[in-house]
Amino acid sequence: MERILVIDDDVALCDLLTEYLVSEGFLVESIHNGEEGLKTACEGNYNLIVLDVMLPRINGFEVLKHLRSRSGVPVIMLTARGEDIDRIVGLEIGADDYMPKPFNPRELVARIRAVLRRMHQDREAAAVQMVPEKLLVGDVEMHMSTRLVVLSGKNVNLTSMEFSLLEVLLRKAGRFVSRDELIRSVLGRTPYPYDRSIDVHVSRLRKKLGHRVNGTERIKTIRNIGYLYALTVGAGDSPPEG
Questions:
Q1: pLDDT, tens only, 205-228
Q2: The overall pTM is greater than 0.90
Q3: Does 68 lie in the same domain as 174?
Q4: What is the residue range of 7's domain?
Q5: Where are any strands of DSSP class E within 86-218?
Q6: Is the residue at 195 inside a domain?
Q7: Are 179 and 226 in contact (CB under 8 A)?
Q8: pLDDT tens for residues 30-41?
Q9: Domain ends where: 125, 151, 169?
């Protein structure tokens, strides 16, 4: 059974989510402040964390920052409806997905299953490989069995979503990939209007790999279509500073 940690100061909401998630076959624990939530998340062995932005003691953004320095556990953030900046900031810090409040518990379960399904698929794909597969495009190497990314000889720390996103882009390097395809294959769900999640993940990936290398844009935005990973990025180019 998958273990879910819910960190939210709304006790009634936690009780509702616990009842619903348990009925869907999950093991659930809930914490009602950021400080205790961070400690519990770091010490426990959870498959996914549902994390609210507005928390006492330590807010959800700070919890996520500290958590990402120690763990790659998937995180779905809960944000106030209409607060687009909260969603963008959460994704930039390293959240895998977000849900605006109020929400239908069935949709949250669908998001949880999508994130976990992607994680399981990645692990299973790595486990069945008899010989460790390596993707090499220009100055970037991806080692699929160990989920290691190397940029010009230096390891790059990516979240699970960023790793999956880079894999799709590298496998189709030189060809455009639509936003809808990326949302389905990386986030594991159906696209909906004005969803900027995948764009924020691309932005984080650009920052970690470098926007441009020797004047060449690494991940090009194809307006109204999607993205393209450039094949012209040279293996001898320099990695981004910092």
A1: 999 998 776 677 899 998 888 999
A2: no
A3: no
A4: 3-125
A5: 97-101, 134-137, 140-143, 148-151, 154-156, 176-178, 212-213, 216-217
A6: yes
A7: yes
A8: 999 999 999 999
A9: 125
